[in-house]
Amino acid sequence: MPSYHVSLTIRNEDERRRHRRKRISQDNKMETIPNCEACSTKPSVEEMQLWSQSFDKLMRNPAGRNVFREFLRTEYSEENMLFWLACEDLKQEINKNIIEEKVRSIYEDYISILSPKEVSLDARVREVINRKLQDPTPQTFEDAQLQIYTLMHRDSYPRFLSSTIYKSLFHGNSRSSSES
Predict the structure, then answer these.
(1) CA–CA separation, 142 vs 132, rounded Å?
(2) pLDDT tens digit string along 47-101?
(3) In whole angstroms, what is the distance from residue 73 CA to residue 79 CA?
(4) Residues 115, 23: contact at Cβ < 8 Å?
(5) 142: which residues sit within 8 A by CB, 6+ positions away?
(6) For residues 93 and 161, what is the distance between their CA atoms, to the nearest angstrom?
(7) What CATH number does the domain containing 99 carry?
C-alpha cells in the first residue's frame, strides 16, 4: 500500500510540473501578442484628466486600461487586469459551447491554485465560482470580477495616480498639446 501512495504522489507531482511548463510556454507566447487593446492612438490630456476623476472612467477607456495595465505590470499584479478583461469578454459571448470553453480557460488561467496568474479571491467567492461551474454562464465570474475590480480600485488605482508612469505620460502630453 505505501508504494501505491508514493507512485501516486510522484505522478501527481509530475502532472503539476507538466502543467507549470505548459503554462510558462503559454505565457511566453502571450508576450508576442501586442500588450494593448487600442495601441494606435495616444490618449488626450482631457482623457487623462478624466482618469484621475474616477476609476470607472479610467476602466471604461481602452487607452486608460492600457496605461493602468502597464502600471500593474510594474507592481506584478497585471493578472488582475487580464482577469477583468477576460470576464468582460466572457460577458459578450452567447454561444453555449464557447461560454463553457472560456469559463474553463478563465478558471485555469486565473482561479486555479496551480496557475502562476492566480488572482486573490476570498473563500466565499471561490465557493460561489465552484457552484457556478456546474452550469457555466457569461456571469460565472461576476462576484470574482467585482472583487478584483474593487481591489484594483482601492489598492492599485491611488498608487497609479501618483506613479511616474501616469505623471510622465500626463505631463508629456500636456506639454506637447500646449506647444501646438
Answers:
(1) 10
(2) 999 999 999 999 999 999 999 999 999 999 999 999 999 999 999 999 999 999 9
(3) 8
(4) yes
(5) 87
(6) 33
(7) 1.10.167.10
CA atoms within 13 A on the CB side of 79: 18
* Domain hosting residue 23, numbered range: 1-33
pTM equals: 0.75
The answer on 45 and 27 residing in a single domain is no
Interval 107-151: pLDDT, tens: 999 999 999 999 999 999 999 999 999 999 999 999 999 999 999
CB atoms within 10 A of CB 83: 24
Give yes or no for a contact between 90 and 113, defined as CB atoms under 8 angstroms apart: no
